[in-house]
């Protein structure tokens, strides 16, 4: 079997080869982590949006993201009932309150509170639907089992205790006792550490100082066969400009765009991918450049023997491709382990997927190829007349 000359040259300097593989692996891990956190940022930020079974949503023009919602008049939602395509409407109330850890009464933490009219099945979460009728009781809530552990071991204890009692504070010195009667699974995000769901009446009990008639989201469910885009445009043209009208996908895109363009965090993750590429290019360039310099006399000899310049170019580029594969494999394996660790610690949806695997492999090959293209400029010095 014929062994490629590019591989023979690389393995002749084992220490340098290991350094190159380590540098490329570091760049691969950096790119995987930045892309993983970036994907987790977007996926986690729209979990609530995707859990709702609505076709059209009304928001205040001042709302910028789920963590920065502003209220608008509920009457705008009721005005949409004039359209015969509307099956039902329901207000959604959103807010943050202080939750007392029932296992550690001196520990309080901000929690995201979601209120809705429990007469309507607006969530595609089976656990919420199962307990929806029970939410009509006073001072009861459902707790997100994927919330951070700082809220207490509620998910672990509730199956045995059936109900857990704790307190909640609306951040204006109005503390109220609550009973957790069930669980659902939604998960954390970069702006929300935990969630509870309750009826709109219980929501207003938790926030007694809220002005009546104001809501954060208006959900509109259309009759079967209705064209969402057509009805959305009708509502948009009918209602005043003090509300914004979105389809569900438009609302999801609106949320993602906020995190990508209006916060530093989206830019930082994208920048991290670019930094990984730069690190990899520099490492591979140094290795290939040194290799070319060390073998310059050999390359001149090959030219004197009749080998064309493009053969030497191909040789260096082959080395770059080999380095990219050798560096990618350990980088990928390390990233899988770090993904698992990060998911357990942060509870964010950081998971490896095929698309990202292929994308980073392509970036790694491109990174090494670019470094090779820069390094081969030194091959011009491999002139037999000069060397000999």
Quick tags:
single chain, 388 residues, alpha+beta, 2 domains, six-stranded mixed barrel, two-stranded antiparallel ribbon, 14 helices
Describe this structure in words.
51% of the residues lie in helices and 18% in strands. The protein has two domains: 5-44 and 264-387, no CATH class; 61-242, no CATH class. By secondary structure, the protein is an alpha+beta fold. Helix 2 (14-45) runs antiparallel to helix 10 (264-294), helix 2 crosses helix 12 (309-346) and helix 12 (309-346) runs antiparallel to helix 13 (354-375). Strand 6 and strand 7 (175-184) form a beta hairpin. Strands 3-4-8-5-7-6 form a six-stranded mixed barrel. It has a two-stranded antiparallel sheet with strand order 2-9. The protein has 14 helices and eleven strands. The radius of gyration is 29 Å and the shape is elongated.
Number of strands: 11
Low-confidence regions: none
What's the Cα radius of gyration?
Answer: 29 Å
| Proportion of residues in helical segments | 40-55%
Number of separate helices:
14
Percent strand equals 15-25%
The pLDDT mean sits at 86
Order of helices and strands: HHHEEHEEHEHEEEHEEHEHHHHHH
Q: Give the termini separation.
A: 33 Å
Class from secondary-structure proportions: alpha+beta
The biggest beta sheet is recorded as:
6 strands, mixed, barrel
**Overall structural domain count:** 2
Oligomeric form: single chain
Shape: elongated
